[in-house]
Design a protein that fits this description.
about 300 residues; Rossmann fold; 8-stranded mixed sheet; 10 helices; globular; oxidoreductase; oxidoreductase activity
Length: about 300
């Protein structure tokens, strides 16, 4: 165990990690891990007050940890632009970008820029963020982008004729679309990085079925019966964070891989290579999604 801990510190010491949605759940557990192993952690969160509370929990346990909170609203392209510009003025490198934040099955709604809320926040927000941070990523040796998908990408599609949900909306259907988009984006990004001989690699992962804030009912916790079922079938957030940590640190990964739990149905367990749904390997869909994402966000990737 100590040897493994030493290796993790060697891999992370002195590095800078940005984690979106780092104030709770899987993002917070990942932030704890990176911070205690020597990485400077930037908690990119929509609610700064909650972010500061989460930061304090890390600092209390690990006083030497370097943890900062920065405001980022992935449902607002202007907020994303300001975050990227602010980051560039404060830091000259970026080793790890963890695209973790997400919303799950909300009532029909739109982002500040008029996108359907789940597609706009979960995919387009991270697409825009990654593109604007790419100059720092590609100038940082051995940098990585890790984007969180979900088991919900299975049996999902990209509804190009109804991306805004105006022709009909179902929360779970559109959540699956956003998570498939995350996976398609991660794979296409890695492909383009390799085509331009850029050392940065892109990977995707999923947490299995983990007990996080995504499983809250509105502003209330789940009913007692549901909590009991969750405890039986869901793994804790600290286990759900392991695929993220593995994707960010495992030296043998080359880019383009998809990491998930190794247990039955890929719902629980320890991180291992995962085979995504065939839809996630459709190159025509990848290219079309990429082009539309650039058009919708106004963010063009500079691979030069």
């Amino acid at each position: 165990m100590n040897g493994g801990a030493d290796l993790e510190k060697d891999l992370l010491s002195g590095k800078t990690t940005v984690i979106t949605g780092a104030n709770s759940g899987i993002g917070l557990e990942a932030a704890k891990f990176f911070a205690q192993n020597g990485s400077r952690v930037i908690m990119a969160v929509r609610n700064e007050e909650k972010g500061k509370v989460a930061r304090d929990t890390i600092i209390t346990k690990h006083p030497q940890a370097e943890v900062e909170v920065m405001k980022l609203d992935l449902a607002d392209l202007e907020s994303i632009r300001i975050f990227a510009k602010t980051y560039e003025t404060q830091f000259d490198s970026l080793d790890l970008l963890i695209n973790n934040a997400g919303v799950m099955t909300p009532p029909y709604g739109k982002t500040k820029d008029g996108f359907e809320l789940q597609f706009g926040s979960n995919h387009l927000g991270h697409f825009a963020l990654t593109g604007q941070l790419l100059p720092l990523l590609k100038n940082t040796s051995n940098s990585r982008v890790v984007t969180l998908s979900s088991l919900a990408h299975r049996r999902a599609g990209i509804y190009f004729d109804n991306l805004d949900g105006s022709k009909g909306y179902k929360g779970m259907k559109f959540y699956g679309q956003s998570k498939l988009a995350n996976l398609l984006f991660a794979k296409e990004l890695d492909k383009r990085l390799k085509e331009h001989d850029i050392q940065t690699i892109s990977l995707a992962c999923h947490p299995g079925i983990s007990s996080t804030n995504l499983f809250k009912f509105g502003k209330k916790d789940a009913p007692k019966l549901v909590r009991g079922l969750m405890n039986r079938f869901l793994q804790p957030a600290e286990m759900g964070a392991l695929p993220t940590i593995y994707a960010a640190t495992e030296p043998s990964l080359k880019g383009g891989e998809y990491i998930g739990p190794d247990g039955r149905g890929r719902m629980k367990g320890y991180p291992a290579l995962e085979t995504p749904d065939p839809a996630a390997n459709d190159e025509q869909t990848m290219r079309k999604l990429w082009n539309i994402s650039e058009e919708m966000t106004g963010v063009t990737y500079d691979f030069a």
